[in-house]
Amino acid sequence: xxxxxxxxxxxxxxxxxxxxxxxxxxxxxxxxxxxxxxxxxxxxxxxxxxxxxxxxxxxxxxxxxxxxxxxxxxxxxxx
Amino acid sequence: xxxxxxxxxxxxxxxxxxxxxxxxxxxxxxxxxxxxxxxxxxxxxxxxxxxxxxxxxxxxxxxxxxxxxxxxxxxxxxxxxxxxxxxxxxxxxxxxxxxxxxxxxxxxxxxxxxxxxxxxxxxxxxxxxxxxxxxxxxxxxxxxxxxxxxxxxxxxxxxxxxxxxxxxxxxxxxxxxxxxxxxxxxxxxxxxxxxxxxxxxxxxxxxxxxxxxxxxxxxxxxxxxxxxxxxxxxxxxxxxxxxxxxxxxxxxxxxxxxxxxxxxxxxxxxxxxxxxxxxxxxxxxxxxxxxxxxxxxxxxxxxxxxxxxxxxxxxxxxxxxxxxxxxxxxxxxxxxxxxxxxxxxxxxxxxxxxxxxxxxxxxxxxxxxxxxxxxxxxxxxxxxxxxxxxxxxxxxxxxxxxxxxxxxxxxxxxxxxxxxxxxxxxxxxxxxxxxxxxxxxxxxxxxxxxxxxxxxxxxxxxxxxxxxxxxxxxxxxxxxxxxxxxxxxxxxxxxxxxxxxxxxxxxxxxxxxxxxxxxxxxxxxxxxxxxxxxxxxxxxxxxxxxxxxxxxxxxxxxxxxxxxxxxxxxxxxxxxxxxxxxxxxxxxxxxxxxxxxxxxxxxxxxxxxxxxxxxxxxxxxxxxxxxxxxxxxxxxxxxxxxxxxxxxxxxxxxxxxxxxxxxxxxxxxxxxxxxxxxxxxxxxxxxxxxxxxxxxxxxxxxxxxxxxxxxxxxxxxxxxxxxxxxxxxxxxxxxxxxxxxxxxxxxxxxxxxxxxxxxxxxxxxxxxxxxxxxxxx
Lengths: 79, 777
Description:
The complex is a heterodimer of chains A (79) and B (777).
Chain A: E1 17-19, H1 29-36, E2 44-46
Antiparallel strand pairs in A: 1-2
Chain B: E1 4-11, E2 14-21, H1 48-53, E3 68-74, E4 80-86, H2 88-91, E5 96-101, H3 102-106, E6 110-111, E7 117-123, H4 126-133, E8 137-142, H5 149-153, E9 168-172, H6 188-208, E10 212-220, E11 223-224, E12 232-238, E13 241-247, H7 251-259, E14 270-273, H8 288-301, E15 305-308, H9 311-317, E16 320-321, E17 324-332, E18 338-347, E19 368-376, H10 391-408, H11 414-420, H12 425-438, E20 452-460, E21 472-478, E22 483-487, H13 496-508, E23 515-519, H14 535-562, E24 569-572, E25 575-578, E26 583-587, H15 588-593, E27 599-605, E28 621-629, E29 635-645, H16 652-671, E30 702-708, E31 710-711, H17 725-728, H18 730-742, E32 748-749, H19 753-765
Parallel strand pairs in B: 3-15, 10-32, 13-14, 18-19, 22-23, 29-30
Antiparallel strand pairs in B: 1-2, 1-31, 3-7, 4-6, 4-8, 5-7, 9-19, 10-17, 11-16, 12-13, 12-15, 17-18, 20-28, 21-22, 21-27, 24-25, 25-26, 28-29
């Protein structure tokens, strides 16, 4: 099932990545979300596993959840 | 064209004018000389009676027709692979309606800690669900585990994670760059390492040139989430639409996860209801596996499912504040100015790697800082955001270093030392208030041969949230005079419901009793999550705007029907008045009855941006007074003075309640709370509320809350967040007070009797070198 990617996520970050600042629902959530890339207290989870590791067992974070990873959605699944 | 206005910003006797350009449609903030009838008054919560009489319905209390009960089977092993899960026998058990496995549902065949989810069952009764759980057959491949950071960091430690995951990994500083895929930068991390080496050298040199250098190694323990209402939801599918009564801090976020095409539920429509939430403290932003499981079990069963965690599941799997090991060196000159700080810290977020940082470099001017943080994987339940993530543990270390540094330069008074290194205008005043109210300069029995010794300690808070755009509020004034304000966000116990109503009542010139609030329903206007202490700062400007424009519409009706000038009318004390203050003879209810329609409804969004304002940050200072029994090592916190500010105070009573809650949780962190792991079995030993010690009412100190009202001008209500800042300083102030009382420092939190006695004993061993009694360390 293809779906629209959350608008906050950079183009090539996996659409399954989630973190607290994405549900902030305030105008500054974009900067808060971008800050979380390098924040030392940010947690990221995967919508598929609902855990801090992805279906491939590796960590969930914006640096790792990129194309080339085994569990990254196929192009036809992305809209 | 945006209107430019000049407002007064400041607090106490420190006000100055500030010119701001109002965003389109916004209204000026309340001014210091403006009479307010509701805002600023101490008002009991609108839901106080419902809560204390038990009529308030939490998710746990929901009983939709046909409700059945969900249970989660958890791994009994510290670290394992799940080879297979056989539900055949369980599905055949009496009353079982639905079941699932974690490997099939979540694409995850790892059980990385004792308590990890493996399978789930829903059955007609709780007993039937429990019985069916015992019939699930799981084949595990058990692996070695590590459940403490020391074990995980030890040479030759078993691997906690999978694949190439190392047990210890640097998490800060780190590159933002991509480590995979196109545009990946293979050199990014090397550049960070080189920068780190340069920084270390620079700060080494600064410390070498300082008049005094103090060092300390501090530890804090894992503090598990323990809200009274556990995580979970009651889930029901009605005509293909999912309804969840969820215990959540983010109604819209919860809905987003269950409707996402990337998730497992993929509901085309979902309504989340959270009228009452029994605490969250940072752990309830996601639907979690339990929320997904509840929705899926209900879908298969075709009837509503209650999937709330039991207490053991809550303690092991619903998140925690990571522990910390913090090594610090601070350089300070004789003039009291801090020159630099070097920090190396480690913490475990469970089997993941990020999020376990300690905020130990904020608040003060600390000179040049060299800080490196590491995450340490352990086979334990994962950490989550926990009220002021990273701050209490960081503060425990930093504030003790501040006292040690003050002592090292001829025993400078700790409060004066902080003032020398702190330029926050509000905190400067708050130090003086805390000093006076704790009796800082009173003579106390410290150290030496006395059985009961007492001491005082000080520490500071910080926060930075005036909210932001993105929320809307709807105000409805009915023809019969009933007023309702609505927003879909949740009230997690902080008083959001009451404060929204107060703001609307103030703007409409009516008593609070005439306003009701509908909250916690995603069918209502979009609201924020309750996180980052952003809720009130985000919601109240929208509430005030909606009320303001609803008032204008009502007065326009009155003016038209009476032939009056609408610009000459206002509402005050439930009367329609003229601008000169004279009464028109018309009550609020009379005015409402003039409507042609049934009601006026106004939906307004919060202005997007905040104004420059007086200060971007909250301040806050706490002082603790303790008594220590030198024979038993028992610490009793006698009193905490908590001086706090949160911009303009809407309801001092609920604000005070937030501060009290923070102090209680902070004292609990200082003296009691810690997750105890069985290193052999790999399981949590105190996964209940009997053995996981939380501060009780008998141990609770006197809490003297002093609120500083600040007209900060950041928004039309000028509210700053207050949920998190009050917990930042408490444990640190207690630790400093204990050191002051016993004459030696306890470097580990919680400060248990054993650790106190060990510290006293070590001090006595080194008594050959005479020390000044009562010297602050």
